[in-house]
From TrEMBL:
It comes from the Bacteria. This is LVIVD repeat-containing protein.
């Protein structure tokens, strides 16, 4: 191989990382976290036992091999203790939300692109923005409208609904769509017809977000050095309470009392870039108490050697003890050596962290699949459709929980592996109990570019009473998935 060929390959890989950052919305900085061959490495969780009616995977846990696309098997999809109940649309983004209004109408909200204008052609006939589905008949979702105010056209990872006040909010904010316009809608009276209350620049750049449970405070993070707290006591007149600079926070989740924030910490800025990604636990009590010029203070930070890009940390309790379910996204392509050889980089997966003492958090278990293991990430696996692309591939992206108090099940979108379901009743020994994956066969749909494979990126939502999980795949749209073979009892 000539020096020119090597250089060309290096530039090609760096270009792919640039595309990944645009789609995933990260910030290209130097970041540590490479796992050496001498480091102990977490093992994958036990595989699910697939019951009657399942169509299990044909390879290692989480993989859809190229051979399945060639044989036609991939087009049939992969199910384990799940089945498709409904499908709507042809594209998806980062969030699926469920809300029931004051009249008893149940709706789903989901963003239908990763980043504008990626899916404009695909959405020409349906509209670009945040989709509103009437889910009163969950077998037959009805799209009632597509919200197209500034933030809703491309909310990226910021779309959230506050159940207490019936407010839907999002920020327009990625490296491609600044500034951070914050849109706030009322969905309390009729979720099928959201009413725009305000559209302001109070998001301060924006990218990800968080709500206080009482619905008075919306937080916006830009991942490139800002954290803004916005007072939505009057949602028609948002007011910025404080803006913190010099932090690289991703997803933001709050304790029930609104006084503690669990921030996915992309890393700490320094002279050599951003290092030590993980979680940061913050005291935001002065914001919650509306102290004048409130301070946000760091109670603790936690990192782990095999982290990639921390995405979100969802709080929950087990027997009164406090935990978070954290997931990383993509691969660690922030470090220069990893950007040039990303198959060997740490890959996004999930973990359960004990936060009972917020000053001393501790990882108690990991949630990863066989396809995520270092020994499986190179070679032939990279030839699977979508597996080679840094912003797709076999990695985690979002996890969510059906409830905060003693949840039994966790749902995670693990990109090319689809929707994965885990039993987390034993926080130290989680195990996989089901999955649903409907990968796109390359060339069968208009996608720019047509990568093929699954592209499950959204935080799932849950209909606990009916035993259903809702999520979107970027390549194929919204799915209502029914849990089978006794799995639905884990939603109760």
């Amino acid at each position: 191989m000539t020096d020119a060929t090597r250089a060309g390959g290096a530039w090609r890989r760096l270009a792919l990382v640039g595309v990944a950052l645009a789609l995933g919305g990260g910030t290209l900085v130097a970041q540590g976290g490479t796992v050496s061959a001498d480091d102990p490495f977490p093992k994958p969780v036990p595989q699910a036992g697939c019951g009657k009616g399942s169509m299990p995977e044909t390879d290692i846990q989480g993989r859809v091999p190229r051979a399945d696309y060639r044989s036609g098997r991939a087009a049939e999809g992969y199910t384990c203790n799940t089945r498709e109940l409904a499908h709507e649309g042809g594209s998806g983004g980062f969030k699926v939300l469920r809300y029931t209004d004051e009249q008893g109408n149940t709706c789903a909200f989901y963003d239908n692109t990763l980043i504008f204008p990626r899916d404009v052609v695909n959405n020409l006939t349906t509209g670009q923005g945040t989709v509103v589905l009437d889910m009163n008949r969950p077998r037959r979702p009805v799209r009632t409208t597509t919200l197209d105010s500034p933030a809703m056209v491309s909310p990226h990872e910021s779309l959230l609904v506050n159940r207490k006040r019936g407010l839907l909010a999002a920020v327009l904010g990625t490296a491609a769509t600044y500034p951070g316009v914050l849109d706030v809608y009322d969905v309390s009276e009729d979720c099928r017809d959201p009413q725009l209350l305000s559209s302001t620049l109070s998001g301060v750049l924006g990218h990800e977000s968080g709500w206080s449970k009482d619905g008075r405070t919306f937080y916006s993070s830009s991942t490139i050095a800002t954290l803004a707290a916005v007072d939505l006591t009057d949602p028609t007149d948002p007011q910025v309470l404080t803006t913190q600079w010099g932090v690289n926070y991703h997803g933001l989740r709050l304790s029930d009392d609104g006084r503690t924030m669990y921030a996915a910490n992309i890393g700490d800025p320094g002279p050599t870039g951003v290092t030590d990604g993980g979680i940061a636990i913050l005291d935001v009590s002065e914001v919650q108490d509306r102290v004048e010029d409130p301070e946000i203070t760091v109670l603790s930070k936690l990192t782990w050697p095999e982290h990639s890009i921390p995405q979100v940390a969802e709080p929950f309790t087990r027997g009164g003890r406090h935990y978070v379910l954290e997931i990383d996204e993509f691969v660690d392509f922030f470090e220069a050596t990893n950007a040039l050889a990303y198959p060997g980089s740490p890959v996004g997966v999930a973990r359960i962290i004990d936060v009972e003492d917020p000053t001393a958090p501790e990882v108690v278990s990991n949630i990863r699949l066989e396809v995520h293991q270092p020994e499986n990430r190179g070679g032939d696996q990279l030839r699977d459709p979508g597996a080679w692309f840094p912003a797709q591939g076999y990695a985690g992206h979002y996890c969510s929980l059906p409830k905060r108090r003693n949840p039994k099940l966790a749902g995670c979108s693990m990109i090319a592996s689809g929707l994965r379901l885990f039993d987390i009743r034993d926080v130290e020994h989680p195990r996989e109990v089901g999955y649903f994956n409907q990968p796109l066969v390359p060339g069968t749909a208009l996608k720019p570019p047509t990568l093929g494979g699954a592209y499950a990126m959204s935080a799932p939502a849950y209909d606990r009473r009916r035993g259903q999980v809702w999520y979107t795949d970027t390549n194929t749209g919204f799915y209502n998935v029914r849990l089978t073979n006794g799995l639905r009892k884990l939603l109760r």
